[in-house]
């Protein structure tokens, strides 16, 4: 199973460091969530791990090989990446989008095959999109569109999936739908999943491993129930909170505490 890691990883823009000397290893066959405040470096780290961004110093490695040294097709057969706001050509159907996931396996001597067709059908089935396969992508709901993009990544048949805020712009029902799907993929297929999440409680509930970033550095890394504390939330998010066990899962549940100034602002007039 593929092992993804970073060594002394640094990214700087115009001389300003966004990530600084990061060293980490992503657990194989598990779900890892990248969390932290805005500007903490979550998306930058994910983009470097997926070779969408070149580090200023250090390296990202896949199975001990520098990602920068892999061919595009070799990487696309190992890593599937879904950016935060993917854009598809107008008029594309769900099936046509999912078919694009098989392009890494095409060449001048190997055209569309039964294996390609099988993987597309499998991806559509796994994401519960067979009935919508011939619908245009822009006619679907937000949750359905996100499932279609995930199906395209699944059609690549990669052991590792990188997803940048897969629940962005979705209502609560569709957020749960997508996270349940990813949880199912991990549980039934053993996929390694790395995703950026803004919701700390969702990260605690769905991820086996959490990486907390602050100002481009790793503040903490480990299992949710081992690292998520009131002090960590205070430092990483500048929020006072109470951490209690989630009544359904037993994982940490963060209850933000309203600041005194906010309470005073809402006090009734006398």
From TrEMBL:
- Which Pfam families has this protein been placed in? ABC_tran (PF00005)
Single GO molecular-function term? Answer: ATP hydrolysis activity
Please name the PROSITE patterns in this protein's record: ABC_TRANSPORTER_1 (PS00211), ABC_TRANSPORTER_2 (PS50893)
Tell me, which GO biological process terms does this entry list? iron ion transport
What keywords appear on the UniProt entry?
Answer: ATP-binding, Cell membrane, Ion transport, Iron, Iron transport, Membrane, Nucleotide-binding, Transport
- Chief place where the protein resides: membrane
Gene Ontology CC terms: plasma membrane
For membrane topology, the record states: Peripheral membrane protein
Kindly give the Gene3D superfamilies that the UniProt entry links to this protein: P-loop containing nucleotide triphosphate hydrolases
Domain ABC transporter, residue spans:
4-240
Checking InterPro entries in the record gives: AAA+_ATPase, ABC_transporter-like_ATP-bd, ABC_transporter-like_CS, P-loop_NTPase, Siderophore_ABC-ATPase
Protein's cellular compartments: Cell membrane
Name assigned to this protein: ABC transporter ATP-binding protein
